[in-house]
Amino acid sequence: MKLVQLSLVAILATGMAYAHDEATTDGKVTHGSVAEVINDGDNSNGEIFGQARSFYIDRTYSGTVNNNRNSWAVGGYAGYMTPVMSGLSAAVAVYGTYGFDIHDQDADVIGSASYDPSLYGRDFDNYAFIGQAYLNYKYENTNFKGGRMRLDTPLAGADDARMLPNLFEAVVVSNTDIENTTLIGAHVFRETVGTFGNIYGGGALGLTSGYGLGMNEALSGDFVNMGTVALGKAGIDGKDNETSGVTALAAIYSGVEGLKLQAWDYIAWDILNAVYLQADYGYQMNEETKLFAAAQYINESDIGDTLAGNVDSNYFAAKIGVKYADLTAYGAYSVTGDSSGAINGGIITPWGGMPAFTQGMVTRHQFFANTDTWKVAATYNFKEYGVKASVYYTNFDVGAENQYDNGTAWTASESGWDIQYKVAAVKGLSLRARANYPRDFKSGLDWDEYRLIANYNF
Question: In the record, which residues are listed under signal peptide (predicted)?
Fold first, then answer.
């Protein structure tokens, strides 16, 4: 497996220099030609799977900070899944990232202002680790999965936005005995934070952006208690923040044509209880035109030992759009209400969950307390050429109760674009170019950021 991974990394490094990617956020894997050669079309001996990735990022700050930083790294993951025997299977996968020194100053010099930290581990290190190692058992309509794995749920997820995603140690049970309904029960014990977490560095901004106060403990492949990831080793009044983890219960229903309903309840023991609701509806007007609408709601309240202090937060959002032929466009609006708490309120999401309809590519201010946000976006699919192009604009009316610049209210915005190209000549290969232009991310702080990404799924 290691030789396969290294050879794919070499292909990307030499043949796609400065290709850049933001990753497959849906967790799906498209098997390519390398896997077909290895597996020889026969799964009786198991299956090799993985993704090789090359990522280049360049960000130029202006305003209160004037600086340019950029980084280039290659990496990804490679794994093996056993054949299914009497419903039982197992998988293991190695994840890793290797960043190149592309400036006069080495990336591992702490405090280097020339490198973007989001492609590396702790203190700009390169690292590899076992990111997935689980058993899976399926009996009739019930599936059990336990061990190290990737999760993609609304409030605890991979957030695969840079080189490596968040990964978790968990047990997950799902059942589909009820027609058109999936029931899910899960318990998450520990998390290792992906490379994107370095952007937040364990600060208060991360709490509403997918990363906790103790995320620095969980970098570079270290799996850490969920309470510690959220709040650090010692929190309010010096309490130990290790907890019993996070229990998640969910029901997903799709028994009405065009309608999908989902309800999640996250019990983060001794921290908070979070309820997430979402409804999606699509109506096919004619062969070329489809209307769609969606709504989402989050409620958070403190429980148990209230390690995060008082928590009382609500978030509402709605989205409406149309798909006409190859063009899709939508508008979304969200409100995070007034809330109180030791961490200045808002929606706390320290474990990678980021389901908001109104988030930007990098600006996630929609979860700040007393903040209204709107977003418009459009995508055109050039199917003949394998190209999909998107543009968006989002506006955040930030309330003074926010934890980033507490006591200050301001208006932030972000525009950007995204071009994806699926290379028809090389199965499994996709290229991506992205850009974002936040203005007043914090009052007076702007930047222009560009990314080049290449993913090879096998």
Answer: 1-19
Domain boundaries, the chain: 2-457
Asked whether 361 and 436 are in contact (CB, 8 A), the reply is yes
Q: Could you read off the pLDDT of 13-45 as tens digits, one per residue?
A: 333 333 333 333 333 333 333 344 344 455 678
Q: Within 10 A of 31 (CB to CB), how many other CB atoms are there?
A: 17
Structure tokens at 73: 């790294």
Evaluate if residue 242 carries a pLDDT over 90.
yes
CATH of 2-457, one of 3.40.50.300, 3.90.1150.10, 2.40.160.10, 3.30.420.40: 2.40.160.10
